[in-house]
Each structure stands twice: as C-alpha cells, then as structure tokens.
Amino acid sequence: MFDPVIAPSGTLLGLLQRGRGDGTLHALTAPRPEALAALNHCVLRDPRHDWQVENRSLYYARLYLDLHGELDAIEAHLFDPEDVLDTEESRTGLALAVLGHLASYGRRDALELLRRYAAHGTNWAWALDELALRDDDAGLRALAAPVLARFATDAEGEAELAATVRDAFEPRPWRLWADDPRPSVATRVRAAQEAGCFDRWQRQMRPTGPRPGWSVQAVFAWAEQGLERGAALHVPAARCLSAVAGPEDRPEIVRAAEDGTEGARCTALRYLADSSDPDALTLIERAVATGSAPVVEAAVDAFERMRSLAAVDRARGWARRPDPLGAAAGRVLACRGGLQDRDPVLAALREAVRCEGPDAPTLWTLVDGAGRLGIACAAPVLRHIYRETASSHLRGRAARALAATDPSFGTGFAVECLWDCEETTREVAARHAETGDTRVVDRLRRLAADPAEEAEVQTAVRSRIGPEETAV
Predict the structure, then answer these.
(1) Could you tell me the pTM of the whole model?
(2) What is the 8-class DSSP label of residue 8?
C-alpha cells in the first residue's frame, strides 16, 4: 500500500483524514454534498500511515450517521473489479470496519452490505469478523455455504480451510457452523477444527532457534544467521545470553561488543545494557562511532532501555551531540530526566520538528517528556504538532502534553478532542474540557449514552456530569 496523500490541515478533507474533532464539527456545518464527498474519500482511500493501530472507523461511522450518509460509494468500492486484483486488506478494511459500526447502530443497509461482501468479496474474512460481532445466528448460518464453497474439497483445499479456521480472529461463525444441522457443513468445519488443533500442536513440538545447552558462541552464530536471512534476531539472542552466559563469559561478550561480527555485536550490546554492565555505556558510545548502521541502531536502542542513574547522567553529557546518540539522549531525558533537564528536552523537541517535521518518530517520546516535565515553553511546539501531524496517536500524546503545559487547553483543543477519532484522546478531553461551552455538555451526554463508546471514556465523562445528566 502506498503512503496516503494527506491534505493540508486547514481543509475539511485534511481534518477528516487526520481524524481530528474539528473535522466532524466542520463537516456538520459544511454543505452536505461536500462533507459526504470528503468523508467517502477518507473511507475509500484509507488515510492512516499505520492502518493496523490508528482508529478511524467509529469516527467515520458516527459522521455517516450525523450526515445521514448513503452507502452507495462504499458499495461501489467493495464490489469494484479491483477487489479481485488488489487483495490487500488495507484496500477494503476501513470500509468494512465502518460498515460494522454502522450495523451496530442499527443501519440495516450496512448489515446487508457486509453479508453480501462476506459471501462474494475478496476480503471476506474481515467482513465475517465484523458480522461475528453484530449479526444474529440465522444471518451467520446463511453464510456457511458460500464461505465453504471458497475452499476446494481436495487435500490442498481442506488444508487451506483448516488454516483459516485455526487463524480466525472471531471464532463464533465457525463454532456455529460446526453445529450446523447440514452434515455437509458441520463435517467439513469439524474436520478443519481438528486439523488446525493438530497443526498447532505439531508446531509447538518442533521449536526452532536456541535450545538448552547452547554456548555463547552458538547464540552469536544464531544472531548472525538471522542477519544473513534479513531477520534481526539480536533482541531474542540477548535474552538467550541471559540464560546461558555466566560470569566467566563476560570477557568474550565484551570483545564481541567491541569488534565482533554484526549480529554478535548487536547481541552483546543489548545483553550488556540490559544487565547494567559497568562498561555498557562506553561500548555503546564506541559502537555509535565505529559500527555499521544496524550496529548503531542496536546500540542506540540498548541505551534507551537503560534505567540506571549512570545512563541518565551520561545522557546529559550526550544530549547536545548531533548524531543518533544525541537524539537518543534527548529521549532518555524525556523519559527519565528531572526538572533540571527541561532545557535539553525542549531543545530536542524543537530540533526534531524543525529537521524532521511533525510526524517524526522521535516526537512520540519527546512529546510525552514535555508533558511529564511540565515544560510550559513547549506549548507552542506542541500545538503545532497537534494541528499538523497525520498520526492520530501522536496527536493524542500532544493533547495529553498540552493538558499539562497549556492553561488554555480546557477551552481550546480539549473541546474538539471530544470528537477525536482516538478513544484515549476523547478520554483526555472528557477530563479537561470546560463545561461552560454548551457544545461540551451536549457532547458529554451523547458519549455517556453511546453504547459504542469505550468504557474508559464513559468513566471520564461520568466523573464530570451527574447521573441525572447521563440519563438525558
């Protein structure tokens, strides 16, 4: 899947793509055809950079309800000929998830569309998972025949069916079909369930990788073999070293950290850092200066995991370095520094935004640190990140940091956060939004009464309004 093109943050489309609360508020006041066009654009061209963790489906489903939106565009997208050519879940996953939420709100047209796609679409398993949570037994039983018809009755087809049943995210349909009164259905599903259980048992009996009795060199060799295959194994290899290495093996591990092969060096650095070895920080600094790119990355990651006071002290000395170790030092101080470290954390935050933009991965930790340390001077940068980032998770972290640093948060961004796509951001808003704004009170009541809302959000809402208001 190509990276999505995100519109400017000041446009309706850009707001909806980001999942911002202002997107909903602007859509509700915009001409309805314009709002629906922007909404359909988002649902049919998933705007998330990480579609597996960022939330948008409930956000878009609620807007479809508020706009009384038709589902013709979603139907055309799901049953387009491209559905056969592009089998990636990312093409249809968001649309199916939106339909699932709409079905839970009682939209019969969404439920029927999910049923049709489960019977005939390429990404049918996702549709079936949505139906497993929302459809009745009769609706699911009607899908047994078209779903099973997807699998041939020869050995290869039955093996594929067994793997599908074994890996199903929602098992409810398969359990229903295992008890189906039609022998042709129940027999195949039960056989697939048994084969899947047997396959799982076989895989557990054939473990790969380190075994008891391995030596330090064997662990290093395993890590090196992983690199040759394109798999970074130094993290599990370091855990293996913790099991097999004794005090007498330390000189060998230190030598590997100094100038060993790439896999061995990454493994040794991780092991020494996790065990708080007195030479770990010196070896990490040397690795950053002399190592290859994978070694530098492993050394920086190992340093950021260290929890000792010595690591924090060393971070204070490294914070001004213009290299990956300096950037890591800023993140360490953001996580574990004290009030005296506000200036370097603020400097690292500003530098990251200036050089890498509002979506830089390093900002996640630095934004959290600005909030944890209460850096009031960081509020303008945090507001910029909040507005511009395409990551709804990073925006939520910026909102939490602003709640701790910006006195105007309760009457500003907290209000729009009540409509945000991320439940954790809505929770922050529910705790901080000033109720002098009538929109806030109305929204809190709606969230409290919405069965699709997360429990944590509703708990935060009920801490702000009384039981009699919740019942409204």
Answers:
(1) 0.88
(2) P
